[in-house]
Amino acid sequence: MTRTLYDLYGRDERLRFSPYCWRVRMALAHKGLDVTLKPWRFSQKEALAFAHHDQVPVLCDGDKVVTDSFAIMRYLDDAYPEVPVLGEGVSYQRALFFKHFVERSVAPSLFRIVVLDLLAAIHPGDRDYFRETREARFGCTLEEFHQPEQGREALQKTLAPVRGVLRETPFLDGETPSGADYLLFGSMMWAYCVSKETLVPPDDEVAHWFERMLAQHNGLAANAFTVRDLPAE
Fold this sequence. Notes:
Layout: E1 3-8, H1 19-30, E2 36-40, E3 58-61, E4 64-67, H2 69-79, H3 90-121, H4 127-138, H5 142-145, H6 148-158, H7 160-166, H8 179-194, H9 205-219
Helix pairs in contact: 1-2, 1-8, 3-6, 3-8
């Protein structure tokens, strides 16, 4: 069966930074499923018209089309149940809670740290769109929103419960990574891909966890193209 994942790219087509696409890519690798990545930009809304959606990720699995990263992760569990990512029942509910924690608490802090680097990493043809939509969301200019130290302080506080878990186990889901790990990793990988800013102290449990996550699935994320690989603009 042919699988295709529409995947956001930046000023270089090799730069793939969407936190939601990284969730799905890690979930696919977790299940040992091959996928072809189809590059997509913010301005290419019409390319997703077949999915009745205007954002990535969009997964095409044979004739099945699935949108929204969490919905895709759940679909993968239903279609390929042998190696669960989110699980069922209580496990699923806990993963759903953690999804909201990452999106509502972790991501805003990361945005404060990397937003101007993110703007520079985006394809030049998408920068006006990004600035207009995000400034409308934030209620201020990107330059005003960009507060790296404030973002790092907030992130350290937000990640306190994560740090507590990682003192007990190498991954959030235990001895091996699974859904909770991929949900958080997607956002951390997004910031790592677009910025050279330090997100957490190098001796932090979260930093050690991130290094372990980079190495997972034969170094899928460790081998990813990031802004470190780009020539200066």
